[in-house]
Fold these 2 entries.
Entry 1:
Amino acid sequence: MGEKSSARKGGKQGGKMMSRVWLLISLAVAIGLWTLLSVLPQTARSFPNIIVTLGQIPVVIERGILWKDLSSSLISVGAGYALGFIIALPVAILMAWYKPVRNIIEPWIQFIRNIPPLAYVPLIVIAAGVGRRPQIIVITIATFLIMCITMYQGIINIDETLIKAARVLGARDKDIFIRVLAPASLPFVLTAIRLGASVALTTLIAAESTGAFAGLGMRIRSFNNNFETAPMLLYIIIIGVIGITVEKIIKLLERKLTGWQEKREI
Amino acid sequence: MAGEERDIKVHIDNVKKTYMGRTGEVVALNGVNLDIANNEFVTVVGPSGCGKSTLLNIIAGLLEPSSGTVTCNGKVVTGTGPDRGVVFQQYALFPWLTVKKNVMFGLNMKGINGEEAEAIAMKYIKMVDLEKFVNHYPKELSGGMKQRVAIARAYAANPEVLLMDEPFGALDAQTRTQLQQELLDTWEKEMKTCFFITHDVDEALILGQRVVIMSARPGRIKDIIDVDIPYPRDQETKMSPRFLELKNLIWSQVYQEYLEVRK
C-alpha cells in the first residue's frame, strides 16, 4: 500500500512537470505564430510583434487610461455579474420546484439566450440612457440567462433516491433542503458561476458600446477608430488574461468544495 | 418461539395502488395481503413490473396506497418513520459526506450527535468491515463497499424493519455472494424484520424464511413458499437437494410469470 501510493504520488509529480513543459511548448508555439503574423505582409499591419505590443504597457499607464479602463470594466462586470447571480439563483430554484414557473419561463430563457447581446443593446440604451446603468443591465441579462439555465438543469437532475434516502432516515423538509438539496446543487452553482464569469467578460464589449466613457471594451473601439493596433492587441490580451485567471480561481474553488463528485463536468 | 413468530410486525391489508399512465389508469398492485412476523426474513421475487418496488415504497411510507392499509407495530403507516429503514439498489449514499458521516446521518436526524453518534456509527462500520475507510468519500469506494456503507447506515438508525430493494442487483456475482453471506450473519446476530426484494431466485432462497412470489399486471401475491432449510446457511446450502427442489418449484412459477409478461 505505502509503496503503491508513493509511486502514484511520484507519477502525479511527474505529470505536473510534464504539464508545465507542455504549457511552455504551447506558449512557444503561440508566440511563434504571432511573430509569423507580425512579419507576413498581409497581417503585419494588424499584428504588431510581441515586443511592440508589450511595450505599450508603460505607454497606456502613462496616458492614464489603463487603470481607469480596468476599474471601469471590472465595476460594470462585477456589478452585472453579481446581480445576474442574485436573480438567477432563486429563479432557478423556483423553476426546478414549480412546474408552471418552469413552463412559463424556460422557453423565453432559451430564446433570449440565443440572441447576441449586441443586438439588444440599442433597446436598453433607449430605455436606460447612457452611462454605467445600461452596461450593468446588459451584463446582468446575459449572465442571468446562462447561470439560471445551468443551475436549473442541475437542480432538476438531483438524484431523487438521495431525497428518499434522507426521508427514510428521518429527515424533514428543512433537513432535506439544507442537508441534501443544497450540497447536491453546489456543483451546478459553481459551474454556473464559472460560465457566468466567462459570459460577463464576453458581453463586456457589447455592454460598453452603450456610450461608455472608459472601459476595456470602449477603449478597444476607440483604438480601432485611430488605427492604434498595438495597444488594441494589448487590451485584447488583457481581457483574455482576466478571463483565464477568474476561471482558474473558480476551478480551484470547485476542486476544494466539490471534490467529492463522482464525475466532473466541463 | 412459536408464540414469538406469530408476533406480527408488518400487516399489509388489501393494498391496491394505481397510477395514471399514458394510456390511462395502470393497476400496479391489487389485493395484496401479507403478514410479516417480528424478526422474520421475507424475500420477494417476481418479474420486473410486478410492483414489488411499489410495495416496498408503500411499506416505507414513500408512497401512499390507493386503497388498503399497511400497519407497522399496530400503527397505520402514513409516512416514513424511524421504525422502518430502507436500502436502495442505487446505494443512495450522500456523495458529499464521508463514510462515517453517511452512517451518522440517520442518528443526527434523531438528534443524536457528537461522540455518541460517532461511537454508534463506528460499531456498524466495523460490522461491515470498513474501518479503514471511515474518512473516505463514496466515490473512492467500489460498488460492494458502497452497499456495505448503505447497510451500515440503515442499521445505525436502528429500525425494527429493514426494507431492501434489490440491494445487490448492481453487483458482480462474487461480491453479491459475499454480501449475501454477510447479511445472513448480521441478521442472525442482530435480529431484524427483513423485507428483501430480488429478481434472483437463488438469492431469495438462501436468505429468506419465506419467499413471496409476485405476478405482474396487476401485481399481486401469487404464492408464498416456506423455506424449511435451517440456518446458518452458507454457499454449500445452494447444493443441497432441498434447496434445488425449492428452486425448481419457485423457478417454474416465476418463469410462468415471465411468459405472461412477454405476452
Entry 2:
Amino acid sequence: MGVVNSLNDVITTKLAFAINWGRANSMWPMPFGTACCGIEMMATFMSKYDASRFGSEVLKFSPRQSDLLIVSGRISLKMMPVLQRIWEQMPEPKWCISMGACASSGGVFDNYTIVQGVDQFIPVDAYMPGCPPRPEAFIEALMTVQEKARRGQAKSSEYVSNDDARDPSLSPLYRSPDAFHFSPTPPNKAQAASNVPSNTEKGPRFEGGPMSNLSPEAMEKV
Amino acid sequence: MYSYEQEVTEQTDNVVHMNVGPSHPAMHGTLRVKMEVQGERILRADQEIGFLHTGFEKLGEHRTYNQFITLSDRLNYFSPLNNNIGFALAVEELIGLETPRRCHVIRTILSEMSRLADHSLCVGAMAMDLGAFTSILWTFVEREKLYDVFEAVTGTRLTTSYARVGGLAFDLPADFEKRVTAILDSMEKTVDKLRGSFYKNRIFLDRVEGVGVISKEDALSYGITGPMARASGVEYDLRKFKPYLIYDELDFDVPTYSEGDCLARYKVRLDEMDQSIRLVRQAMKRLEPGPISAQDQKHALPDKLSTYTDMESLIHHFKMVMPGPDHGINPPVTDLYSATESPNGELGWHLVSDGGSNPWRVRVRPPSFINYPIFGKLMEGAMLADVVAMLASFNVIAGELDR
Amino acid sequence: MLVYRKENLSTLAAKVEGAFGDRLLGKEEKTLYVQFSVKAADAKSLIRFLKDSPELGFTYFIDCCGVDYLKYPRPMPERFAVVTTLLSPALGVKVQVRAFVPASGNGSAPARIDSNADLFAGANWTEREIFDLYGIEFTGHPDMRRILMPDDYEGHPLRKDYPLRGRGERGAFPVYHAIPADQAPKD
C-alpha cells in the first residue's frame, strides 16, 4: 500500500508540475491599460521587445479568457469598481501585475480622485516601479509572475473577496447599466430608475474608508 | 417588395441596448459608449468619460510652475514633449521671459519629433483597429527609434519632463544630429509605405471613405482644432496663426482637406508627418551653439551641473525650488490664455496667478476633450462597425480627455 | 489660412465698448486677445453679440473654463468666474469673456449663469465640466449632469475650499480579506 500511495503522490506532484509549467509559459494577459503605462505595455508587445517570447502575446481583452491582469496606469475613483469587477470575472488561478507608480501607490497623483494603490482592493502579485516602467521592467515582472506560477503560488488564493466585491452593485460607487441615460432624458428620471442611492440620505457618504473619519480641517493637513 | 431597412424600422421594439467599454480594445483604454442599436444601425448614443480623471488642475494649484511640467507629461502621453514645451511657453509669456535662440531651435525640433511620434502611433493604431495589424508594427519600429532619441536627450523614453520655465533641462547629446538624420530617412520611407498600403486599399477605403463626416460649421461650433479640423476644411494651425518659437523662419505647408471623413483625417496626419520631417530638417540647420536657458536669476533655473560645483548657482537653485511665498517664480497677479499647436490640436493653458510660487489656477484646454463630443453626433444613424473607424480617426487620448 | 491680425484687436475693443460700454466691468488687452469682464447676467448677451454681429463673427468656439477666486489676493467682483474664449475667423483675433458668478447664499440656490450650449455645441461639455468641478449651474443647458466624477459624488473638487486629497472617497471600496494560514485551501 505504501508503495501505491507514494506512487500517487509522485504522479500528482508530477502532474501539478506539468500543469504549472504550462500555465507559466502560456500566460494570457488581460491588459487593463488606462494611461501612460499602457503605451509602454503596448511597446512591450510590439516588435522590438516582443512579449511573445514569453508565451504572452495573446492579449485577451475578455477577462473570462485570461489569467494575468496587468493594471497599467492610474486608477481613478470611477474606474476602481470596473477594475474590481474585471478581477472578479477572471477565472482562478489568476495573477495580477501592478504596472507603474500610479497603479502601485498613486504615484505623483496624491489627490482626491486617484486610488492610492490598487493593492488595497485587489491582490497584487508583482509590482513594477517606474513612471512609466521600461519594457525591460515589464518583462522582469512577467518573469516573476511566471516563476510564481511555476511554484503554484498566487496571491489571489490567499485572499477571499467579500460579498461587496462579488456583487459590485453593492459598492457605493457602482453604477448599474440602467443608470446610464441619454442626453434628452432629464437626469432625475434616470436617477430614479437606477439603484444609485439618492443624495437625500444624511450622514457621511462613504463609510469605512480609511480616512473618512477625519474632519475636513484634519484632511487638509494629511 | 421586401426591404430589410423597412422591416427593422417597423419592429420598433427591436432595439438593443449596447454598452461598449470602459475596458474595451476599441475604446482606447477608458472611454465608454452606450448605444441603442436597431440591427446594425445606431439610433442613439451616449458617451461617458471621466474614468481617468486625474485631478491635474487641482494638483496644479498645489505645485510650483516647474513641478507642473512633470505632471504635464502625463496629460498627453503620446507626445509629452509638446505638453512640456507648451506649458513652459505659457509661463514664459505670463512672466515675460525671453529664452535664448538655441532653446527655441531645440524646442522646435523636439516638438516636431514628438508630433511624428504621436501621428505615427495614431495612424498605425487606426489601421490596426480596422484589422490591418501590420501597420502598427511598422510605425512602432519608427516610434522605438524616436524613443531612443528622446531617451538620449531627456533621459526617459516616455515621460520626458524636458522643458523648464526659461529654458531646457539640459543640452543635446553630441551625436544628436546623426541620430535624427537617420530617423528622418527611415520615417520618410515608412510614411510612403503607409501611403502605398492604404491609399488604394479597397478594404481600408470602404471602411473609412465617407464615414464620420464632420462639416466645417460643426467643426467651428464644437471648437474642433488640429488635424480633425483641417480634415474638415478649417485652415487653422497655431504655427501659422501666430508663429511661436522659430516657426516663422521655417518653410512648411499646412495640409488641409475638405471631405471631413475618416480618410481625410488619416491623410492629414500622414501629410503632417511629411511636413514635420521637413521642419526638423530645416530646424537642424539652424542649430548653433549657445546657452539653452535664460540668464534670469528671478525666474529661470540655473544650469543643473553648476549647482554641484558653484555656490552661487546652488543658492540660486534653492531660491527657485524651495517652497514658500518668497521663493520660486512669482509672476504678476494676472491671468493669461496661451496656446500651442499640439499633435491633436490647440493645447491651451489658462493660467491665473496670485503672485505666489504656485499657480492659482491651471486650466488645460485639452484638444481631445473639445474634439470628442462630436463623436456622439456622428454615431447617431451610423453603422455599428463605423464606430471603431471614427473613434480611431479622432485620436482621443484619455489622459488629456479626463485630466 | 487663418492668420493673427493684431490691428483688429482695437477694432474689436471699440465695437464691444460701443455696444456694452456701461455694462463692462473691465477690459484688458493681452498679447493675442482682449479680455472683457462682465457680470453673469450680461455674459450671454455679450457672447451672442460677438457671435452674431456680422463684422465681428466670433463663430469658432475655443474654450470655456471656471475659476474660483475665493481668498484671491486682489479683490474680485464675485467668487466664481466662467471664462469663455472665442476666435473670429473673419478678424483673426481671439476674445475672452470673463463672467463673474456670485457664490450661492447660505446653502440656498446654487451659483447660476446662462448656458451658451445653444450658441456653441462645444460649450455643452465644458459647461458640464464646470458644473461638475465648481458647482456652477447653467440655466438652459440641455443636459446638466456630472461628467468627470461619479454621479453620486458629493462636493465640487476644484473649489478652493475642497481638500486636495478629498474626503476619503478614494479609500471607500470593497476590500479583500486575507485567509488565515490554517484555513488556506490546499491543492
